[in-house]
Write a structure and sequence with these properties.
alpha/beta, Rossmann fold, two-stranded antiparallel ribbon, 8 helices, 19% strand, globular
Length: 190
């Protein structure tokens, strides 16, 4: 099994979630990059990886904006994706972020533009396309996510595999429980 971990907006491919995935599935099986801030470049890089690894029992794990990217890739390549507090419409949820940015993990400075928002809008899979991969998308939410409305996300994924944990926050506080549930109900088929 191979895992691609996809980080969120202004984040990076290292940290506690990645460490827990490496502990659970083996460091050699988890790929986690610092993605370009430009959505076109990020999705191109991720697509390249997925195309090469999709036959290796590949699972995508994405958080926030990374959850959106994982959803796009699951729809495009029919690979399983675990979405953690995913952004379901980043063109809308990130509209107030247009302007100068500093990545809080890498200190990279860049400009987030309206063109980036337009790219995110273009990437948005349709409900019909998502319905075709309903059995490959697994959603994990922290109920008290302060940035993205967990109830709205749960409603968006009605009929999909959705597990909501009480409390928590946008950074997601239930990685151990997620991994346990993933092993029991997804890898072993419940």
């Amino acid at each position: 099994m191979k895992v691609i971990y996809i980080h969120g907006f202004n984040s990076a491919g290292f940290g506690e979630k990645v460490n827990k995935l490496k502990e659970a599935f083996g460091e050699e099986n988890v790929i986690s990059l610092n993605l370009p801030y430009d959505p076109k470049k990020a999705i191109a890089l991720l697509s390249y990886l997925v195309e090469r690894l999709k036959d290796d029992n590949l699972y995508l794990f994405g958080t926030s904006l990374g959850g959106f990217y994982a959803m796009v890739l699951a729809s495009r390549y029919k690979v399983p994706a675990v979405l953690i507090n995913p952004s379901i419409n980043p063109a809308l949820s990130l509209k107030d972020e247009v302007g100068k940015q500093i990545n809080y993990k890498t200190d990279e400075e860049y400009e987030f533009t309206k063109e980036h928002l337009n790219t995110l809008k273009e990437l948005q899979p349709s409900k019909e396309d998502l319905a075709k991969v309903k059995d490959k998308i697994f959603v994990y939410l922290d109920e008290d996510d302060e940035l993205l409305d967990s109830r709205e996300t749960a409603d968006f994924f009605e009929g999909f595999y959705v597990k909501m944990f009480p409390g928590g926050n946008h950074r997601f506080q239930h990685m151990d429980e997620l991994i346990e549930d993933f092993r029991k109900n997804i890898l072993q088929g419940g």
